[in-house]
Amino acid sequence: MSSLLIAALLISFLPIVIYSMYMAAVILQKNQIIKKNTTFPVISVVVPTYNESEVIGHRIKNLKDINYPTDKIHAIVVDDQSSDKTVELAKSAFKKYNISGEVIIKEKRTGTNASVNLGVSKAKTDIVVTTDADVTFEADALNYAISRLLSDENIGAVCGELEPIVKKNSFTTSSEKAYRTVYGKICKWESNIHSTYCFNGPLIVLRKKAFSPIPETHGASDAGIALRIIRNGYRCVYESSAKFYEYITGDFSQQRRQKLRRSARLLEATIYNMDLISPKYGKFGLFVFPLRILMFFVVPIAFFTSVILWSYLFAQINLVYGIVVLIAFFLALISGNWHSNLVSSFIWHQIYLLLSMKRMFRGMHVWKAIERKKV
Hints:
Glyco_trans_2-like; Spore Coat Polysaccharide Biosynthesis Protein SpsA, Chain A; 51% helix; eight-stranded mixed sheet; globular
């Protein structure tokens, strides 16, 4: 009994310590004021697409509506063999909204990573923006992101902050909103130390000279971009002033599929870049990256192991006590269904990470998108 108690204490200690560090960083960090960009360099905006007919026109219109000179934007839509009218609608939108743009149709469907590589390679500008077809930039999002990029020659890429758009409240949307309240603050803390690689793919502004092609068949495109740029000797930072809006599905099965895919590809990108744990990459290689590895791989296993151990230990005292521990855990898990909270969101996040470990190497670079909504 005593050895099990010691094991339970030690295993529980790791998740508590790691997340306490992150929470302390979130609470104690100071807000950094970023001035809006007053110069407007010519930029290329790369939009990978696959069956985006519901949103592509709206996406291109948003480039017209933001506070950035239209004549300084060149859009590059890289289509992954869409079977709908994405290509025709994109070309029509370029003309309708007077946006300089082109559509590149790939010879075969190879996924988002390959589309990003192709789009960035075709860009003729020093600054390239990568985005998704189903999001909308806040009016000054590009201004803030570009200002941060140009503020330091050592910064190779900047990502923006996701503002979830909820059209129907549900357990899934409540969980995502709670998760997003701390996600950006954690990434900002890592950025202040050196870099973060947990990028939001729908808004990344990068220096083309800092970029090198990302792996096409494994890893998340956004994390892949950041990790390659860090490997090339630059910093990658998170800018919360650069906001974009994304529709969050209220359908549990669709969100589950999306979260598992994103988690698996993030974990896969992490695994393939383990050599970044090195003094060569400064505080990122010595502190930020090792801490993320613990968070992604060790904490989920330790967390659920500790739940099992504590329920068993209490059951040894009295069976009812063990059952109470499990009931309390289950109630915490589903509590987000009634009220958005970090406890429920944390547990679901650990579940997704744990399940994603089995899916890391399944070749998920080509997938079926969830429902699309204009935002």
